[in-house]
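User: Fold both of these, please.

Assistant: Here is the first one.
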Amino acid sequence: MHFRLQASEPADYEEMAGIFNYYVEHTFATYTETQVTPDRFEGLMSFCQGYPALTARTGQEAMAGFGLLRPYSPIQAFDRTAELTCFIHPDYTGKGVGTAILAELESGACGMGISSILATISSLNEGSIAFHRACGFSECGRLPNVGLKRSVPFDIVLMQKQLQCPS
């Protein structure tokens, strides 16, 4: 499948919200039960300022997915660690979009001196856990029974990837 990666910009927030809202309504990939507005992404992006944030677009200009890194913590001791968010349009999962976004985010992370990327994933999102594992993430912890969505309890699975950045 042909697609191109580009830096996210404010004009993308509505499509990003649309992709995210699919997962709000149909899966346990998001923790929220209510749809979000494009303003939510404006707030998220301001929190991620200076970190890589990307969209993937098909040849027909449809948004195939998006991914971004954000600070793990505002405490300086954690400056080398970032947290990942990545959502792929359901029509484009399993086609290499997520892998390409993650590779580009990792490259950007290395350029920032980040050496560790974290992902927090619902235990009910087995596809995401498998994706992260296939991309070199390891489960490093689990918070049992801390989430509840649609009256269904779930664990948070903590996954981590140590980056092998060129010196």
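And the second sequence with its predicted structure:
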Amino acid sequence: MASRSLYRLSSAFSLLEIVIVVIIMGILAALVVPQFAGATDDARTAALESNVSSVRSSIASFRTRAIIAGSDPYPTLEQLTTPGLVVQGGLPMNPYSRLSAVQAVSQQQAESRTVSDPDLYGWNYYVNNASDPPVAIFYANSTAATTSPDGQGGLRNANEL
């Protein structure tokens, strides 16, 4: 009987062994977690770049069709927000604000990429078909920092993409 109880004691983990395993797991977690912490920011930036590019491409396609038809080259805000007319399925969501609504802004606001009412609108749009040449500017209505480099060692804000 004494040999069986000794065997049971020797087959269990000691407190020291458990503590060492926990410490090793903590060190590994400390090394791995920071590498994945930026993955969400990278994904959000990539989604924003993709959404902005997609809408701008749709506006360019609309422009091509409009010029061939002899009408105003850029869509009005109403045309832009009509699902299927410019953008198939409607405007995408801004991944930083989680909003897909778009608002009209002035030329000065568009040129300086001003953000206004970020809790109501995910996008800003300026269009002037009467100017020579006609102008349309579409950008994100958010000043959130992205992971997109600005070319000078810094990062761009969402409204600068």
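Helices lie at 2-11, 15-37, 39-69, 77-81, 107-111.
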